[in-house]
Design the sequence.
């Protein structure tokens, strides 16, 4: 079978089933179950991977991006459904590259490096000013509405996702997304090999003491389409030692046969354009040049930079506020979308097959508690909104009573975890306590 034939078979296979809720929850294919089974057998029979015994961890070679993606899909399902753990993936278009935060790839003493850092800081401040204090008013909510307030550092993942330099590194819970970014480089040479790194969350002793997992705040949908999570190393620089991948797989970076796309029952555009984000980046760039009109590059003072950015964000508040100001009748929908997106991400990151309960799903408490500990404000806001949606008689209630009980237990678990960890939400997050 040629690579093109394998790619076409793989794409058809992915189109026949809903893959949107991670490796555990996989509804039976509704479109053509028999065809799906036939394609599965074909893909298995045509997948021949040569294990390269060069390191203690598994290292594999695949003939193409589609072979690699199928292998990672099978591997991920075997790990998660075997109750072994949940996986994180990262794809890079050059197998020689180490996993290094974008800020550590820049020389911040040069004009170019200093400019990128300035614009990254400005983008974070603009994003925070835009979303930090939002109050949603609706006849269906308490009299004072719902107020969302997040610390400014909650927007560092947003800056990282949209191309600004930060100390974070992008990862995904969906292996096909990792392959997508590794395979679709515009600058890959004919001989270049791409690489996907895969590691079990919690598989290494004290892993979560060495890295932090960061989530994206509400209203930024693209990272959730990519099932993205952001890793921050507790030690600056190369995070290879902390991340310690369980598996790597290499394949040709140049996908000349056809474009590799992400498919979850349908083709998913994981890079939708966002004119609002583009506008924020343009304003951040403009702030740098206005700063240079009053300051020399060689005399950048950190305090002056932060003060200027803070004042500039307030100055352009009237310009950026309309970008995300939802219409009143759509406000509830924006929050509901965020709740759905974050809950979906939990399926990818925190659920595995529990063979002790006849194959039912179970929560990976270690991973879930880590997400709470590393993102207390976002997770508490999620819990508050979750309980509100569950108690709203005007909103549809899950038909499955067990699912509703699980949802209530999920939000309760967040509260208990935050309380036991000593986190005081009132210091950082203000949300009217509208659920008794």
Sequence:
């Amino acid at each position: 079978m040629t690579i093109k034939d394998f790619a076409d078979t793989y794409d058809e296979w992915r189109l026949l089933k809903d893959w949107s809720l991670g490796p555990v929850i996989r509804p039976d294919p509704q479109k053509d179950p028999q065809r799906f089974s036939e394609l599965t057998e074909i893909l298995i029979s045509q997948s021949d991977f040569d294990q390269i015994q060069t390191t203690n961890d598994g290292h594999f070679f695949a003939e193409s991006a589609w072979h690699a993606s199928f292998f990672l899909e099978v591997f991920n399902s075997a790990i998660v459904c075997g109750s072994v753990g949940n996986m994180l993936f990262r794809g890079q278009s050059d197998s020689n590259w180490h996993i290094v935060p974008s800020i550590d790839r820049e020389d911040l003493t040069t004009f170019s490096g200093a400019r990128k850092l300035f614009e990254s800081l400005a983008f974070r401040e603009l994003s925070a000013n835009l979303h930090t204090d939002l109050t949603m008013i609706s006849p269906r909510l308490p009299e004072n509405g719902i107020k969302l307030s997040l610390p400014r550092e909650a927007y560092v993942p947003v800056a990282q996702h949209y191309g600004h330099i930060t100390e974070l590194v992008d990862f995904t819970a969906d292996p096909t997304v990792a392959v997508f970014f590794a395979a679709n480089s515009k600058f890959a040479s004919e001989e270049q090999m791409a690489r996907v790194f895969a590691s079990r969350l919690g598989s290494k002793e004290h892993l979560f003491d060495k890295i932090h997992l960061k989530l994206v705040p509400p209203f930024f949908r693209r990272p959730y389409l990519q099932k993205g999570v952001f890793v921050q190393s507790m030690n600056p620089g190369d995070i290879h030692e902390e991340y310690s991948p369980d598996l790597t797989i290499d394949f040709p970076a140049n996908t000349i046969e056809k474009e590799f796309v992400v498919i979850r029952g349908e083709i998913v555009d994981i890079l939708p354009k966002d004119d609002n984000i583009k506008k924020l980046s343009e304003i951040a760039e403009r702030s740098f040049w206005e700063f240079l009109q009053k300051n020399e590059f060689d005399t950048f003072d950190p305090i002056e930079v932060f003060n200027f950015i803070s004042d500039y964000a307030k100055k352009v508040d009237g310009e950026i506020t309309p970008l995300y100001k939802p219409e009143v009748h759509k406000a509830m929908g924006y929050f509901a979308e965020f709740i759905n997106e974050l809950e979906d991400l939990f399926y990818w990151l925190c659920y595995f097959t529990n063979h002790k309960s006849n194959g039912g799903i179970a929560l990976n408490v270690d991973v879930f508690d880590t997400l709470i500990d590393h993102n207390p404000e976002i997770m508490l806001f999620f819990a508050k909104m979750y309980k509100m949606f569950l108690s709203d008689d005007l909103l549809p209630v899950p038909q499955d009573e067990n699912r509703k009980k699980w949802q209530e237990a999920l939000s309760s678990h967040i509260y208990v975890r935050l309380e036991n960890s000593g986190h005081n939400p009132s210091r950082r997050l203000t949300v009217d306590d509208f659920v008794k």
